[in-house]
Amino acid sequence: xxxxxxxxxxxxxxxxxxxxxxxxxxxxxxxxxxxxxxxxxxxxxxxxxxxxxxxxxxxxxxxxxxxxxxxxxxxxxxxxxxxxxxxxxxxxxxxxxxxxxxxxxxxxxxxxxxxxxxxxxxxxxxxxxxxxxxxxxxxxxxxxxxxxxxxxxxxxxxxxxxxxxxxxxxxxxxxxxxxxxxxxxxxxxxxxxxxxxxxxxxxxxxxxxxxxxxxxxxxxxxxxxxxxxxxxxxxxxxxxxxxxxxxxxxxxxxxxxxxxxxxxxxxxxxxxxxxxxxxxxxxxxxxxxxxxxxxxxxxxxxxxxxxxxxxxxxxxxxxxxxxxxxxxxxxxxxxxxxxxxxxxxxxxxxxxxxxxxxxxxxxxxxxxxxxxxxxxxxxxxxxxxxxxxxxxxxxxxxxxxxxxxxxxxxxxxxxx
Length: 416
Hints:
Layout: H1 15-18, E1 22-27, H2 37-43, E2 48-49, E3 58-66, E4 72-80, E5 88-95, H3 101-122, E6 156-168, E7 172-186, E8 190-207, E9 210-228, E10 233-244, E11 249-262, E12 272-287, E13 297-313, E14 316-327, E15 330-347, E16 350-361, H4 374-378, E17 388-398
């Protein structure tokens, strides 16, 4: 496989001219994606990485999506600004699931550097750049696409994990442990996922001679299969089994079939998505305790509609969702939820981050008849009756000062 690398040499006499290419990096889905901006500043010293989009010559948006093998597919969108307006390029590459942080950041640096070359050429600021190649002599064909024929696992990926944690003090101790097993296969036309999760927690209290122990356990198994119809339509099935002490489920079985439509082609999912989906199926529940509706077990037909949107642009990103789940034989028993997340630059160094979600809850058919004790309420040991729930967070940030400082100094980093 060809492995090409671009290396850059600098002439100190032309350093000022070379640095007149000013670059602004925006990191999509910044809650989990590390765009390695510090590393880029350290390694790509022939360009300025500025803090203000409005003075940049090039805006580079870095997005990433998880791949079926557990790695990530990166997408970099280069947009020319000011005199470079109208120039636009998209670069994509993948990193495998077991790539180290250093390997990932080197891939990001390599592709950012390659992508900036055209913009340096148009600004006539490329005199200090030299191209070198490290072409391999091994050109063995390894197959095409993300799951070549040579793959002995046929694109299936398996995960096994176990975890445990504890904390405590003189009067209280807490212990949690769990295990998880999953298998998945992701191809361009279909996706399969099977997962089994087990969790157990124990709270022990000893205060003024009185000892109390509270235990909660859960098992969650689900299977998902989705199939592509075309660039906008897909369909799938979802099946689930739950045992939950907290939610009063001795055994709960759920099975659904679903249809989804994406206004934008699925290939544009890195930057924009707007999907509408509908689910239909049924739930069969066996309860640990008799419910407020005097049921020990029951079957309920269920339906669900969803709308999900995501847009990642040069000014920031916004996502939103709407879901309504209802019992089809008693539509007044339903659950409606909405959520939104906004990360945006308002003007220069002023930015805002907002997350909000809310639910109207009318379908708690699993509530125990006898209710919960005060201890169970305070220690959150049992599901409680409620008509709504909500969560919100807001962050405002204003940054000003030097926008040209590319110096990286890690001395006493934990204290600064």
